[in-house]
Amino acid sequence: MKQQTYTTNAKEQDRAVLVSLYTNEHKKEEVNMEYSLAELVGLAETAGAEVLDTITQNKESKDPKWFIGKGKVEELKIRIDELGGNTAIFDQELSGAQVRNLEAALDVKIIDRTQLILDIFAQRAKTREGIIQVELAQLSYLLPRLSGQGKNLSRLGAGIGTRGPGETKLETDRRHIRERISDLKAQLEEVVRHRTLHRERRKKSGIFQVALVGYTNAGKSTLLKQLTQADVLVEDQLFATLDPTSRTLVLPAGKEIVITDTVGFIQNLPHDLVAAFRATLEEANEADLILHVVDSSSDNRTDQMRVVQKVLGDLGAAGKEQLTLFNKIDLCTPEEREMLTSEGDYLKISAYTPEDLDKLKDAIQEKMTGDTRTFRIPADRGDLAAHVYRIGEVLEQTFDEEDMLFEVRVNKIDYEKSGYILEPFLETNTFANTAGE
């Protein structure tokens, strides 16, 4: 499909009033609406909007025509006119009909939470894979709402909702949009095929794989940069990095591992986005160990941790071995640090403290090695003795009559790769502690 860029006025900024609806369904799910609205403010500012005001509405259920009810729409119009706004951003997802009705009543651009997040991703995508995935997600979101996007697509003025495919003149014929979606899916399949090949090569090489996951702005990219000196963007804002970055990390015992930074999670992450970025997010599913990075200074860390676990569950990675990292403890009081706990193994760290990074490397190494085992090798089997040094870290070597005794902290991957050649010579098996305190 031939695409033509249409005129925008780069000087015009989105001046937005933010709107959130609180229903009985939210009450049942114990949704923290104040936190959700505060997060929406952060998303809007990240997208480049000037937030003029926030408005909330309590209703038993959403209005199928006006979403927040006709009376509240009239109140919203008065407020937008008073403040000179040109955009209304809603904290929940809107239907095409609701967008049409709200545009007609308010005469401003209407953006919902999903479109806002997609717009931020459009700004952040830099690699071919990221750009394809964002456009695919945006078009999948747009297709069922196409008839409700008339003003948004024709409205002069740059800003939220006009980036990515919004910068091109989208034809109203759904067939052309579907053709573009099919084309993007084919391109993405090719990219995914290459990514899968890289994963398989890493597995065959026996390299231990670690994935950094966490809520957006938890400090994953900072941690990757501090651990590996990776050249990655580090900014204090939502979704500062989008494309996954993999780097090699050398552990204290000399073993190399691959550590990958993944896209940050957020509550109500758009379904189209999860689907489009599944290949990227599956880095977590393929990892031998997941490092769940938590912003320990956030008042909403418990909700953020719950969101991350839900997304991991959706990806089928909930059962993966995890180490929770309470990051940014330098921003916490001593009392707040004491309250940081989690099910399973966890560490309290600051990505900027070298001692904490060393502690993390030791914890990863413990997770990687697992069991400490003793092998009894006949003294005349030098080939087996050499093999012992290849499957882990030899802690101690002693002699017993005509045998050699090796106490080894076994590397799980190397041991499996060896085909368990040393299994017949296994004498004892004691489990090492893998928890980090």
UniProtKB/TrEMBL annotation:
Major location category of this protein: cytoplasm
The family this protein is said to belong to: Belongs to the TRAFAC class OBG-HflX-like GTPase superfamily. HflX GTPase family.
One Pfam family from the record: MMR_HSR1
Species the sequence originates in: Paenibacillus gansuensis
Stated name of the protein: GTPase HflX
Annotated transmembrane regions: none
Sequence ranges assigned to domain Hflx-type G in this UniProt record: 208-372
Subcellular location: Cytoplasm
CDD domains with a match to the protein in the record: HflX
Gene name for this UniProt entry: hflX
Entry-linked Gene3D superfamilies: 6.10.250.2860, GTPase HflX, N-terminal domain (3.40.50.11060), P-loop containing nucleotide triphosphate hydrolases (3.40.50.300)
Keywords, ordered alphabetically: Cytoplasm, GTP-binding, Magnesium, Metal-binding, Nucleotide-binding
Summary of subunit composition and partner proteins: Monomer. Associates with the 50S ribosomal subunit.
Function of the protein: GTPase that associates with the 50S ribosomal subunit and may have a role during protein synthesis or ribosome biogenesis.
